[in-house]
Amino acid sequence: MQNKIDIKIILPIVLIILGIFIWYCTCEKKCTDGRIMYSELRKHNKKNDCWVVINDTVYDISKLISTHSGGQDVLLKLCGTNATKQFDSQHDESYLEDLTEINKYCE
After folding, report:
1. Distance between CA atoms of 3 and 64, rounded to whole angstroms?
2. More confident of the two residues 41 and 16
């Protein structure tokens, strides 16, 4: 009786293990240069602690929430998220000068 390895059985197992490894490496991505990761960004999701990403930069917009001309609810929904699309659809780059920059964003 010979011990043959059946490629039809082994290949799917190897591919599953490889897929898990790639997923794990992607999820555990670290930014060693000080940029803000999503796991940190999403913690800042309250009225008194609200960070958003706009064009790859993280901003603290907590002080802006109560005076925003579009209303508080608009900004509160965006706390802890990437708000680039929403910002770009309503404002030009000059508005960023009034925001408190935290750091660059790490995707």
Report:
1. 70
2. 41
Domain containing 100 — which CATH number?
3.10.120.10
| Residue 37 exposure: Cα atoms within 13 Å on the Cβ side | 11
The backbone torsions φ and ψ at residue 58, rounded to the nearest 5 degrees and listed phi first, read -95, 130
Contact 96, 59 (CB under 8 A): yes
- Asked if residue 9 belongs to a domain, the reply is no
d(C-alpha 80, C-alpha 11), whole Å: 41
Alpha-carbon gap, residue 106 to 38, rounded angstroms? 7
Inside any domain, residue 59 = yes
Q: Find tokens 């750091």 and name the residue.
A: 103
Record the pTM.
0.69
Residue 26's pLDDT is 57
pLDDT in tens, 37-55: 888 999 999 999 999 999 9
In degrees, rounded to 5, the angle at the alpha carbon of residue 88 between the alpha carbons of residues 87 and 89 is 90
